[in-house]
Amino acid sequence: MVSYILAIFLLKIYLINLRVKMKKLKIGICGWGNVATGLFNTIENNNKFIKSNGNLEIEIVVIGARRDNPKCDPGAVKIERDIFDVIDHDIDVVVELIGGVDVARDLILKSINKKKHVVTANKAVLFHHGDEIFKEANSNGVKILFESSVCAGTPIIKLLTEELSANKVTKIAGMLNGTSNFILSNMEEGSDFKPTLELAQKEGYAEPDPTFDIEGMDAAHKIGILSSLAFGTPLPPDDFYIEGISKIEKIDFKYAKDMGFTIKHLAVSKLNQDKIELRAHPVLIKKDSYLANLKSVRNGIEVETDLLGTLHIAGSGAGQESTASGVISDLVNLANSNDNILELDSNRNIELVDFMSLSFQYYFYIESNITPEAVEKITSIFAKKKIALESIAHKEDSKENISHIIVITDLFLERELQYLYENILNLESVNKIRSIRIESN
Fold first, then answer.
1. pTM exceeds 0.85
2. 143, 222, 264, 270: which one is catalytic?
3. How far apart are CA 436 and CA 269, in angstroms?
4. Is the distance from CB of 89 to CB of 110 less than 8 angstroms?
5. Phi, then psi, of 210 in degrees rounded to 5
6. Are 245 and 214 in contact (CB under 8 A)?
7. Does the annotation count 158 as an active-site position?
8. What is the rounded average pLDDT for all residues in the chain?
9. CA gyration radius for the chain?
10. What is the C-alpha separation between 436 and 278, in angstroms, rounded?
11. What does the DSSP assignment read for 274-298?
12. N or C of the chain: less Cβ packing under 10 Å?
């Protein structure tokens, strides 16, 4: 009897060990910049945590690097100066971290055709060639994982593709660029745009050429990918409205605060009847809202669903450690998941809403000479288009001999904005005009 019980016990132990047998992935890293070296260091330094928590041993077999990086010594790992030679090694996964579009596309497609899985943090290549890449991956029976392509270490991809699979998603909105949020957070505290951008570059949150971040393209790429996951819009999507943060000034934060708002850069994909609303631009949002209180390089996303209501998710959106975390998460998922290959259900019949047909409330900052009739002339221009004003404030700056006229409008059609700009700027007393949309709930 004892031997029988012992046999059953040993069998159970054997089955448990069989089930949790350590997985192993052999990877090749393509690229040797900050993100790639951050991944290398994380795998080297956190290896025991990856093994114990992820049940995975990651072996870096080869690195594709056109040149050495003095900040990181790869030790005995094989180096290929031609990144395409990485594919020929005995590896399971190509980790694409070279950035850009055209070369990255070629590398990913050639890896797929060599039956290699691909993990990428490159949102631009997925935005421009996602449909093509996923079609080829499915044809070749390999996986493309891209958690770090959107918001670095914030796990929004897995949330949409796995945890919310039973839900109907109706809206995704959030701050998707850590650099922009860092700059706006510092401006909210009283800093000017230019020195804050320089600080972001110094801290490694912004590239030497920050155009993609501050002009909204990075956030646009990310919301395009999330829209494809949630609503089936194609990759690349049709053109949609994109605006950056470079025209915002710190005084806008002062007036926004007086009215209970702050300023964020928001990317939105939203079900609007039978079409999809897709846009990325600065907005005024209520200071007591969830997204308003996320500062520095934090990304924040709200996902509206039919079953669970509105979900909030936040995490670091910039930095090599955050991106490395997302890449390793993909590798663990690849090793331990038997799920089917992700196939984006892109539907080219889905139409995007015409941005000009949308209605927004607006904040206007108008700078004018101090004249008694200035406010009256400005309000008459809004009245001609039958645009109601929720509030109008007249702040005099005696030092500069100018007036700051702050207008909050009721909802009006986006297509009327250009008329307002042209006619208000044509007034002899007006020197400058800026506007920011107000995001409603």
1. yes
2. 222
3. 19
4. no
5. -90, 10
6. yes
7. no
8. 90
9. 26
10. 17
11. TEEEEEEEEEEEETTSTGGG--TTE
12. N
